[in-house]
What we know:
- The complex is a heterodimer of chains A (407) and B (145).
- Chain A is an alpha/beta fold and 407 residues long.
- In chain A, 44% of the residues lie in helices and 13% in strands.
- Chain B has a single domain (5-124), classed as Sufe protein. Chain: A (Alpha-Beta Complex).
- Helix content of chain B is 38%, strand content 19%.
- Chain B has a three-stranded antiparallel beta sheet.
- The radius of gyration of chain B is 14 Å and the shape is globular.
- Chains A and B meet through helix 9 and helix 14 of A and helix 1, strand 2, strand 3 and helix 2 of B.
Amino acid sequence: xxxxxxxxxxxxxxxxxxxxxxxxxxxxxxxxxxxxxxxxxxxxxxxxxxxxxxxxxxxxxxxxxxxxxxxxxxxxxxxxxxxxxxxxxxxxxxxxxxxxxxxxxxxxxxxxxxxxxxxxxxxxxxxxxxxxxxxxxxxxxxxxxxxxxxxxxxxxxxxxxxxxxxxxxxxxxxxxxxxxxxxxxxxxxxxxxxxxxxxxxxxxxxxxxxxxxxxxxxxxxxxxxxxxxxxxxxxxxxxxxxxxxxxxxxxxxxxxxxxxxxxxxxxxxxxxxxxxxxxxxxxxxxxxxxxxxxxxxxxxxxxxxxxxxxxxxxxxxxxxxxxxxxxxxxxxxxxxxxxxxxxxxxxxxxxxxxxxxxxxxxxxxxxxxxxxxxxxxxxxxxxxxxxxxxxxxxxxxxxxxxxxxxx
Amino acid sequence: xxxxxxxxxxxxxxxxxxxxxxxxxxxxxxxxxxxxxxxxxxxxxxxxxxxxxxxxxxxxxxxxxxxxxxxxxxxxxxxxxxxxxxxxxxxxxxxxxxxxxxxxxxxxxxxxxxxxxxxxxxxxxxxxxxxxxxxxxxxxxxxxx
Lengths: 407, 145
C-alpha cells in the first residue's frame, strides 16, 4: 500500500457516519431536479412531491413494523431524542410524574436532554451497565416507580456496539404502563427491528448511519402517545413538526433504509465475519488489549479496543497517516480530560479508558482492508508503547511479578 | 486540520525519544488518569545540558510538545533551560488548539522537574518558587475546579 498522496483510504468509522448509497444519491438527485413542488401545494407539482413523501414514509414504516402515520421526520437523531424525551416529560408532569429511567452510557443527545430536565425539576435514574456493557433487566424493573414518566434506553451503544435487551425492556415497560423510548440510531438498518413485536413506544433514527443523507432522521411515535410540539408553524407532519418537508432527503432516507433492510441478513453476516477476524487477529497480536463490550450481543460492524499504556488520539492520528480512518473515545478528541463516559460506565479505570480505539465496519469494507489494519495497528501500538512511560511501568511490574514467581 | 504542520512533524518524527540510563536528572509530570505523562531525562556536563531524552504517554500534542521542548533545551546551559516557557514551546510549534495548551505546560514542567532533580541530587541550592505549576492553563488538577 502506498503512503502519502494517492494513498488508498480505508474508511472504518461507520458509526460516525456512512458513505451514501448510490441508489439514494440517484433518487435524491432526481427528486431535487424534478420534484421541487411543495408537498403542501394543491397543484399537480405539489401533489407529486406529496405522493413521493407518502410513499417514502410508508416504506420506512414497513421496515420498522409500524404504520406510516406513526413516523415523523426530523433533522436527525438528536432532534428525535430531544423531542421524544421532552414530550414525555411534559406529559408526565401533567400527571404528577417527574421521574425518568435511563442509563449511564446513553448518547449525549439523550444524556444532555435529561440533564436539562433535571435542572427543570425532574429526577433521573441513570442505570449502571454490566462490565460487558449490557443493561440488566432486573435493574430496569427495580428503577420503575409509580411516578416514572419514561424509560429511555438506547438500542445499541455508539461506542462499544453492545445491543440491549430491548424486547424484554419493552415488554416490562408495557406491563408497567410506562412509555418506552429507544435511541436506535446505531441499530436501524444493521439489525432487525420491529417496534410492534418489541413493544417500543418511541424510537429515534438517523439516516446517515445507514447510508442515507445527513441532516435527516425521524421519530416513530406509537399511536395513542401524545406528542407535544417542540416548534410551531404549519400543518406538516400531522401538525407536530412544522416546516416544508425535506423532500429529497426523505426520499433518500427511504431508499437507503429499504436497501439496508433488504440486504440486512447478508450484510450483517459478512460484516460480522470481518469484525470477528479483526478482533481475533488483534487480540492475539497485541498483548494487554481488551475488547470493550459483549462479544456476542454486539452490532455486526463494531469493534472497540483499549490498549494499555497508550493514548487514543495518538493512535488515531497514526492510523490516519497510514490511510485508516477510525475513531476514539479518547478524551483528547473531545477537549476534556475525562475519557469516554461509556468506557467509564463499564468500570474501566481512567488510564485504560484513555487508550481506546473504535473501528466500525460496513459492507463496503473488504477482507484485504481488514488484514491491512491487522498488520498496521500492532506496529503503531508498539511504536507508541515504546515511548510511553506508562508502558514502561507496566513492563517493570510484569518483570517483578515474573521474578517473584521464579523465586 | 486540528494541528499545525510543525506539531504533526514533531508528532510523527519525535526528536530525542528514549531514556538516558546514566541521566543526571529525571523529571516526570502529569498522571495517567488525565491522559498525559511526560518523563524527561537530562545529562549535564559543566552546567550544560549535553543530552536529553523523553518518554511520553499522551495525545499527539503531548508528544509534539515533549519533542519540541527537548530540542529547545538541548545543548543549552541549565539556567537557560529554566527560562523555557510553555508559550515559547507553543510558538515554536506554530500554535496549539486551545484544549491542548495544557500539554505545553506539562512540557515546561517536565523540564523544570528534571532540572530540580539534578539540583537535588547534587545538593545545589535553588529557588523553589520557580518550579511547579500555577494552574494557569486551567486544564489540570492544579487549577482546581
